[in-house]
Protein backbone atom coordinates (compact mmCIF):
# COMPACT_ATOMS: atom_id res chain seq x y z
CA UNK A 1 0.00 0.00 0.00
CA UNK A 2 2.80 2.47 0.81
CA UNK A 3 4.06 2.41 -2.74
CA UNK A 4 0.65 2.52 -4.37
CA UNK A 5 0.61 4.31 -7.69
CA UNK A 6 -3.14 4.61 -8.20
CA UNK A 7 -6.04 4.78 -5.75
CA UNK A 8 -9.33 3.06 -6.46
CA UNK A 9 -10.77 4.54 -9.64
CA UNK A 10 -13.81 6.75 -9.28
CA UNK A 11 -15.21 7.66 -5.89
CA UNK A 12 -14.23 4.99 -3.34
CA UNK A 13 -17.02 3.52 -1.28
CA UNK A 14 -17.43 5.18 2.09
CA UNK A 15 -16.04 2.85 4.74
CA UNK A 16 -18.01 3.79 7.83
CA UNK A 17 -17.55 0.79 10.06
CA UNK A 18 -18.30 0.70 13.77
CA UNK A 19 -14.61 1.04 14.64
CA UNK A 20 -14.28 4.44 12.95
CA UNK A 21 -17.69 5.72 14.13
CA UNK A 22 -16.87 4.90 17.74
CA UNK A 23 -13.51 6.63 17.53
CA UNK A 24 -15.17 9.93 16.55
CA UNK A 25 -16.59 9.96 20.08
CA UNK A 26 -13.10 9.67 21.53
CA UNK A 27 -12.08 13.18 20.44
CA UNK A 28 -12.67 16.62 21.89
CA UNK A 29 -14.01 18.70 19.01
CA UNK A 30 -16.15 21.74 19.83
CA UNK A 31 -19.82 21.46 18.96
CA UNK A 32 -20.57 22.96 15.56
CA UNK A 33 -16.96 22.94 14.39
CA UNK A 34 -15.86 21.17 11.22
CA UNK A 35 -12.18 20.46 11.84
CA UNK A 36 -10.20 19.97 8.62
CA UNK A 37 -6.75 20.95 9.83
CA UNK A 38 -5.57 17.61 11.18
CA UNK A 39 -2.71 17.82 8.68
CA UNK A 40 -1.30 20.66 10.81
CA UNK A 41 -2.51 19.81 14.33
CA UNK A 42 -4.61 16.80 15.18
CA UNK A 43 -7.62 17.03 17.47
CA UNK A 44 -7.07 15.90 21.09
CA UNK A 45 -8.38 12.52 22.23
CA UNK A 46 -10.59 13.11 25.26
CA UNK A 47 -8.69 10.83 27.62
CA UNK A 48 -5.33 12.56 27.18
CA UNK A 49 -6.12 15.31 29.72
CA UNK A 50 -7.09 12.77 32.37
CA UNK A 51 -3.98 10.69 31.65
CA UNK A 52 -1.78 13.76 32.00
CA UNK A 53 -3.32 14.55 35.36
CA UNK A 54 -2.20 11.11 36.49
CA UNK A 55 1.28 11.70 35.09
CA UNK A 56 1.62 15.04 36.84
CA UNK A 57 -0.03 14.21 40.14
CA UNK A 58 1.21 10.65 40.59
CA UNK A 59 4.19 9.83 38.37
CA UNK A 60 5.82 13.23 38.87
CA UNK A 61 4.11 14.45 42.04
CA UNK A 62 4.23 11.24 44.11
CA UNK A 63 6.88 9.03 42.58
CA UNK A 64 9.17 11.97 41.81
CA UNK A 65 12.54 10.94 40.40
CA UNK A 66 11.71 7.26 40.89
CA UNK A 67 9.52 7.44 37.78
CA UNK A 68 12.62 7.52 35.60
CA UNK A 69 13.26 3.90 36.53
CA UNK A 70 9.56 3.04 36.45
CA UNK A 71 9.02 3.58 32.73
CA UNK A 72 10.12 7.09 31.83
CA UNK A 73 13.61 6.17 30.68
CA UNK A 74 12.44 3.55 28.17
CA UNK A 75 9.51 5.66 26.92
CA UNK A 76 11.20 6.83 23.68
CA UNK A 77 11.72 3.24 22.51
CA UNK A 78 8.39 1.92 23.81
CA UNK A 79 6.40 4.70 22.14
CA UNK A 80 8.59 4.35 19.06
CA UNK A 81 7.45 0.75 18.73
CA UNK A 82 3.81 1.87 18.93
CA UNK A 83 4.42 4.21 16.01
CA UNK A 84 6.41 1.52 14.24
CA UNK A 85 3.24 -0.57 13.95
CA UNK A 86 1.64 2.26 11.98
CA UNK A 87 4.54 2.71 9.55
CA UNK A 88 5.54 -0.87 8.84
CA UNK A 89 8.56 -1.08 11.12
CA UNK A 90 9.35 -4.06 13.33
CA UNK A 91 10.20 -3.47 16.97
CA UNK A 92 13.49 -1.84 17.87
CA UNK A 93 13.75 0.42 14.82
CA UNK A 94 11.84 3.58 15.75
CA UNK A 95 12.62 5.96 18.60
CA UNK A 96 10.69 9.05 19.65
CA UNK A 97 12.35 12.31 20.62
CA UNK A 98 13.49 15.73 19.42
CA UNK A 99 11.81 17.60 16.55
CA UNK A 100 11.37 16.61 12.92
CA UNK A 101 14.08 19.11 11.94
CA UNK A 102 16.57 17.56 14.35
CA UNK A 103 15.72 14.06 13.15
CA UNK A 104 16.11 15.08 9.49
CA UNK A 105 19.55 16.35 10.44
CA UNK A 106 20.44 13.07 12.17
CA UNK A 107 19.22 10.96 9.26
CA UNK A 108 20.96 12.98 6.55
CA UNK A 109 24.24 13.21 8.46
CA UNK A 110 24.07 9.48 9.11
CA UNK A 111 23.48 8.84 5.41
CA UNK A 112 26.38 10.97 4.14
CA UNK A 113 28.92 9.99 6.77
CA UNK A 114 32.03 8.66 5.06
CA UNK A 115 30.62 9.00 1.56
CA UNK A 116 32.84 9.78 -1.41
CA UNK A 117 29.82 11.05 -3.34
CA UNK A 118 29.35 14.76 -3.75
CA UNK A 119 25.67 15.68 -3.63
CA UNK A 120 22.42 15.60 -1.69
CA UNK A 121 19.26 15.63 -3.81
CA UNK A 122 16.18 17.22 -2.31
CA UNK A 123 12.60 17.18 -3.56
CA UNK A 124 12.13 20.69 -5.02
CA UNK A 125 8.68 21.02 -3.44
CA UNK A 126 9.88 19.85 -0.02
CA UNK A 127 8.59 21.28 3.22
CA UNK A 128 10.89 24.26 3.89
CA UNK A 129 12.55 22.96 7.06
CA UNK A 130 13.70 19.84 5.21
CA UNK A 131 15.37 22.01 2.59
CA UNK A 132 16.98 24.23 5.21
CA UNK A 133 18.36 21.24 7.12
CA UNK A 134 19.57 19.59 3.92
CA UNK A 135 21.46 22.77 3.05
CA UNK A 136 23.06 22.79 6.51
CA UNK A 137 24.12 19.16 6.15
CA UNK A 138 25.55 19.86 2.69
CA UNK A 139 27.55 22.78 4.06
CA UNK A 140 28.85 20.84 7.06
CA UNK A 141 29.73 17.77 4.98
CA UNK A 142 31.27 19.70 2.10
CA UNK A 143 28.66 18.48 -0.38
CA UNK A 144 26.50 20.12 -3.02
CA UNK A 145 22.74 20.21 -2.77
CA UNK A 146 20.47 19.89 -5.78
CA UNK A 147 16.71 20.34 -5.99
CA UNK A 148 14.92 17.95 -8.31
CA UNK A 149 11.37 17.31 -9.48
CA UNK A 150 10.33 13.82 -8.49
CA UNK A 151 8.53 13.14 -11.77
CA UNK A 152 11.86 13.44 -13.59
CA UNK A 153 14.26 12.48 -10.83
CA UNK A 154 17.79 12.35 -12.19
CA UNK A 155 20.25 10.56 -9.92
CA UNK A 156 23.90 9.99 -10.73
CA UNK A 157 26.86 8.18 -9.26
CA UNK A 158 27.54 11.40 -7.34
CA UNK A 159 24.22 11.28 -5.45
CA UNK A 160 24.75 10.28 -1.83
CA UNK A 161 21.20 10.59 -0.50
CA UNK A 162 17.75 11.70 -1.62
CA UNK A 163 15.36 13.45 0.79
CA UNK A 164 11.68 13.02 -0.12
CA UNK A 165 8.36 14.02 1.46
CA UNK A 166 5.92 11.10 1.27
CA UNK A 167 2.97 13.50 0.90
CA UNK A 168 3.50 16.97 -0.52
CA UNK A 169 2.52 19.46 2.17
CA UNK A 170 1.18 21.98 -0.32
CA UNK A 171 -0.76 19.90 -2.84
CA UNK A 172 -1.41 16.67 -0.92
CA UNK A 173 0.20 14.59 -3.70
CA UNK A 174 1.34 11.12 -2.61
CA UNK A 175 4.78 10.11 -3.82
CA UNK A 176 5.47 6.50 -4.73
CA UNK A 177 7.68 5.19 -1.93
CA UNK A 178 8.38 1.86 -3.59
CA UNK A 179 9.40 3.24 -6.99
CA UNK A 180 11.46 6.15 -5.68
CA UNK A 181 13.26 4.04 -3.08
CA UNK A 182 14.15 1.51 -5.79
CA UNK A 183 15.33 4.32 -8.07
CA UNK A 184 17.61 5.70 -5.36
CA UNK A 185 19.04 2.28 -4.60
CA UNK A 186 19.59 1.52 -8.29
CA UNK A 187 21.73 4.66 -8.41
CA UNK A 188 23.68 3.55 -5.35
CA UNK A 189 22.15 6.30 -3.21
CA UNK A 190 20.32 6.16 0.09
CA UNK A 191 16.90 7.67 0.72
CA UNK A 192 15.38 9.53 3.67
CA UNK A 193 11.58 9.72 3.73
CA UNK A 194 9.67 12.42 5.59
CA UNK A 195 6.38 10.90 6.80
CA UNK A 196 4.93 13.98 8.49
CA UNK A 197 1.85 14.08 6.27
CA UNK A 198 1.41 10.33 5.76
CA UNK A 199 1.84 8.70 9.18
CA UNK A 200 -1.69 8.06 10.40
CA UNK A 201 -3.10 8.39 6.87
CA UNK A 202 -2.29 5.18 5.03
CA UNK A 203 -0.44 1.89 5.45
CA UNK A 204 3.33 2.43 5.15
CA UNK A 205 5.80 -0.42 4.67
CA UNK A 206 9.24 0.84 5.63
CA UNK A 207 10.77 -2.58 6.31
CA UNK A 208 9.22 -4.26 3.28
CA UNK A 209 10.34 -1.51 0.91
CA UNK A 210 13.92 -1.37 2.20
CA UNK A 211 13.78 2.29 3.24
CA UNK A 212 17.10 3.55 4.60
CA UNK A 213 15.85 6.19 7.03
CA UNK A 214 12.54 7.86 7.82
CA UNK A 215 11.42 10.68 10.07
CA UNK A 216 8.09 12.20 10.98
CA UNK A 217 6.17 14.36 13.40
CA UNK A 218 3.41 13.17 15.70
CA UNK A 219 1.23 16.25 16.18
CA UNK A 220 -0.62 16.01 12.87
CA UNK A 221 -2.64 12.89 12.06
CA UNK A 222 -1.22 11.03 15.09
CA UNK A 223 -2.82 13.62 17.43
CA UNK A 224 0.11 13.88 19.83
CA UNK A 225 -0.47 17.54 20.71
CA UNK A 226 1.31 20.79 19.82
CA UNK A 227 5.06 20.29 19.69
CA UNK A 228 4.84 16.58 20.51
CA UNK A 229 8.13 14.78 19.85
CA UNK A 230 9.02 13.48 16.42
CA UNK A 231 10.32 10.02 15.50
CA UNK A 232 13.20 8.56 13.52
CA UNK A 233 13.39 5.14 11.87
CA UNK A 234 16.74 3.38 11.49
CA UNK A 235 16.43 -0.23 10.29
CA UNK A 236 18.30 -2.85 12.28
CA UNK A 237 20.77 -3.65 9.52
CA UNK A 238 21.90 -0.01 9.49
CA UNK A 239 22.04 0.64 13.22
CA UNK A 240 25.59 -0.55 13.83
CA UNK A 241 26.88 1.83 11.17
CA UNK A 242 24.60 4.75 12.00
CA UNK A 243 26.61 7.58 13.51
CA UNK A 244 24.34 10.01 15.27
CA UNK A 245 25.94 13.44 14.68
CA UNK A 246 24.52 14.63 18.02
CA UNK A 247 26.26 12.34 20.47
CA UNK A 248 24.21 13.13 23.55
CA UNK A 249 24.29 11.10 26.71
CA UNK A 250 20.90 9.44 26.09
CA UNK A 251 22.39 7.64 23.09
CA UNK A 252 25.34 6.25 25.07
CA UNK A 253 25.75 2.52 25.59
CA UNK A 254 25.82 3.11 29.36
CA UNK A 255 24.52 6.62 29.99
CA UNK A 256 24.73 6.40 33.77
CA UNK A 257 28.31 5.18 33.77
CA UNK A 258 29.23 8.82 33.16
CA UNK A 259 32.17 7.87 30.97
CA UNK A 260 34.27 10.75 29.57
CA UNK A 261 34.18 9.31 26.03
CA UNK A 262 31.16 8.54 23.89
CA UNK A 263 30.30 4.95 22.98
CA UNK A 264 26.97 4.60 21.20
CA UNK A 265 24.32 2.09 22.15
CA UNK A 266 24.36 -0.82 19.67
CA UNK A 267 20.67 -0.44 18.75
CA UNK A 268 18.05 2.20 18.03
CA UNK A 269 18.84 3.94 21.32
CA UNK A 270 21.88 5.46 19.59
CA UNK A 271 19.43 7.74 17.75
CA UNK A 272 18.51 9.40 21.05
CA UNK A 273 20.26 12.60 22.09
CA UNK A 274 19.32 14.38 25.31
CA UNK A 275 16.80 14.05 28.10
CA UNK A 276 13.33 13.54 26.59
CA UNK A 277 10.38 15.84 27.24
CA UNK A 278 8.46 13.37 29.36
CA UNK A 279 5.20 15.30 29.71
CA UNK A 280 4.84 15.80 25.95
CA UNK A 281 5.99 12.26 25.27
CA UNK A 282 3.47 10.69 27.63
CA UNK A 283 0.69 12.84 26.18
CA UNK A 284 1.61 11.33 22.81
CA UNK A 285 1.62 7.87 24.35
CA UNK A 286 -1.91 8.42 25.60
CA UNK A 287 -3.07 9.82 22.26
CA UNK A 288 -1.81 6.72 20.46
CA UNK A 289 -4.40 4.64 22.32
CA UNK A 290 -7.00 5.68 19.74
CA UNK A 291 -4.98 3.77 17.13
CA UNK A 292 -5.22 0.45 18.92
CA UNK A 293 -6.76 -2.09 16.53
CA UNK A 294 -7.34 0.44 13.74
CA UNK A 295 -7.29 -1.34 10.38
CA UNK A 296 -5.02 0.89 8.29
CA UNK A 297 -6.36 -0.47 5.00
CA UNK A 298 -9.90 0.44 6.09
CA UNK A 299 -8.64 3.82 7.28
CA UNK A 300 -7.08 4.42 3.88
CA UNK A 301 -10.32 3.67 2.06
CA UNK A 302 -12.18 5.99 4.40
CA UNK A 303 -9.67 8.78 3.73
CA UNK A 304 -9.95 8.32 -0.04
CA UNK A 305 -13.74 8.44 0.21
CA UNK A 306 -13.76 11.63 2.29
CA UNK A 307 -11.34 13.46 0.03
CA UNK A 308 -13.09 12.28 -3.15
CA UNK A 309 -16.43 13.48 -1.81
CA UNK A 310 -15.01 16.87 -0.87
CA UNK A 311 -13.37 17.28 -4.27
CA UNK A 312 -16.65 16.47 -6.01
CA UNK A 313 -18.68 18.92 -3.92
CA UNK A 314 -16.10 21.72 -4.19
CA UNK A 315 -15.88 21.44 -7.97
CA UNK A 316 -19.66 21.30 -8.33
CA UNK A 317 -20.51 24.10 -5.90
CA UNK A 318 -17.63 26.57 -6.33
CA UNK A 319 -15.91 26.07 -9.67
CA UNK A 320 -12.56 26.48 -7.90
CA UNK A 321 -9.56 24.50 -9.10
CA UNK A 322 -8.58 21.50 -6.97
CA UNK A 323 -4.81 21.12 -7.35
CA UNK A 324 -4.54 17.83 -5.46
CA UNK A 325 -3.90 14.93 -7.86
CA UNK A 326 -5.75 11.63 -7.78
CA UNK A 327 -2.76 9.92 -6.16
CA UNK A 328 -2.99 11.70 -2.83
CA UNK A 329 -2.81 11.60 0.91
CA UNK A 330 -5.71 12.76 3.10
CA UNK A 331 -5.59 16.35 1.93
CA UNK A 332 -7.40 18.43 -0.66
CA UNK A 333 -5.83 21.71 -1.77
CA UNK A 334 -7.83 24.31 -3.65
CA UNK A 335 -6.51 27.26 -5.61
CA UNK A 336 -8.47 30.33 -4.59
CA UNK A 337 -8.03 34.09 -5.01
CA UNK A 338 -7.92 35.92 -1.68
CA UNK A 339 -7.07 32.63 0.02
CA UNK A 340 -6.26 34.20 3.38
CA UNK A 341 -9.49 36.19 3.50
CA UNK A 342 -11.51 33.16 2.44
CA UNK A 343 -9.93 30.94 5.09
CA UNK A 344 -10.38 33.60 7.78
CA UNK A 345 -14.08 33.72 6.96
CA UNK A 346 -14.36 29.92 6.85
CA UNK A 347 -12.83 29.71 10.30
CA UNK A 348 -15.18 32.43 11.56
CA UNK A 349 -18.06 30.22 10.37
CA UNK A 350 -16.71 27.12 12.10
CA UNK A 351 -14.93 25.38 9.22
CA UNK A 352 -11.27 25.18 10.16
CA UNK A 353 -8.62 24.54 7.53
CA UNK A 354 -5.58 26.59 6.62
CA UNK A 355 -3.99 28.36 3.67
CA UNK A 356 -0.55 28.61 2.09
CA UNK A 357 0.48 31.78 0.28
CA UNK A 358 -0.31 33.04 -2.15
CA UNK A 359 -3.51 31.26 -3.17
CA UNK A 360 -3.91 27.75 -1.74
CA UNK A 361 -6.58 26.58 0.70
CA UNK A 362 -5.68 23.32 2.46
CA UNK A 363 -8.14 20.88 4.00
CA UNK A 364 -6.92 17.82 5.91
CA UNK A 365 -9.24 14.87 6.51
CA UNK A 366 -8.52 12.76 9.60
CA UNK A 367 -10.70 9.64 9.12
CA UNK A 368 -10.90 8.94 12.84
CA UNK A 369 -13.05 12.01 13.45
CA UNK A 370 -14.13 13.67 10.17
CA UNK A 371 -17.65 12.69 9.07
CA UNK A 372 -19.52 12.72 5.78
CA UNK A 373 -21.68 15.57 7.08
CA UNK A 374 -18.50 17.54 7.83
CA UNK A 375 -17.42 17.15 4.21
CA UNK A 376 -20.71 18.43 2.79
CA UNK A 377 -20.99 21.31 5.23
CA UNK A 378 -17.42 22.44 4.56
CA UNK A 379 -17.99 22.51 0.80
CA UNK A 380 -21.28 24.37 1.17
CA UNK A 381 -19.79 27.00 3.48
CA UNK A 382 -16.82 27.40 1.14
CA UNK A 383 -19.24 28.06 -1.73
CA UNK A 384 -21.10 30.67 0.34
CA UNK A 385 -17.88 32.41 1.37
CA UNK A 386 -16.38 32.46 -2.12
CA UNK A 387 -19.63 33.78 -3.57
CA UNK A 388 -19.80 36.54 -0.97
CA UNK A 389 -16.19 37.63 -1.39
CA UNK A 390 -16.16 37.58 -5.18
CA UNK A 391 -19.52 39.37 -5.68
Describe the structure.
It is a single chain. With 391 residues, this protein is of the alpha/beta class. The protein contains 12 helices and 13 strands. It has helices spanning 18-24, 47-60, 75-87, 100-112, 128-141, 177-186, 206-209, 236-239, 278-287, 296-318, 339-348, 372-390; strands spanning 34-35, 94-96, 119-123, 144-148, 159-165, 190-194, 213-216, 231-233, 321-322, 331-335, 351-352, 354-356, 360-364. It has a 7-stranded mixed beta sheet with strand order 2-8-7-6-5-3-4, sandwiched between helices. Strands 9-10-13-12 form a 4-stranded antiparallel beta sheet, covered by helices on one side. β3 (119-123), α5 and β4 form a beta-alpha-beta unit. α4 (100-112) runs parallel beside α5 (128-141). The chain is globular, with a radius of gyration of 21 Å. The chain starts with 17 loop residues before the first helix and ends with a helix.
Amino acid sequence: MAGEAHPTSGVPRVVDGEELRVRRELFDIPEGVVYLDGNSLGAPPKHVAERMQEVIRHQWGTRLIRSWSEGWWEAPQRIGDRIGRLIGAAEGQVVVGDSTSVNVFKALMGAVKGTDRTEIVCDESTFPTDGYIAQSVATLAGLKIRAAHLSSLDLTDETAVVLINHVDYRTGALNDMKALTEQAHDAGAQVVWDLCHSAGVLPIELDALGVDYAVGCTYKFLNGGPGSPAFIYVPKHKQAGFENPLSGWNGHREPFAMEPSYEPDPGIVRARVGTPDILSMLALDAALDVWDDVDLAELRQRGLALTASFREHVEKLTGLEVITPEVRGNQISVRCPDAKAVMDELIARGVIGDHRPPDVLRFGFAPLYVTDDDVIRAAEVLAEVVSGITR
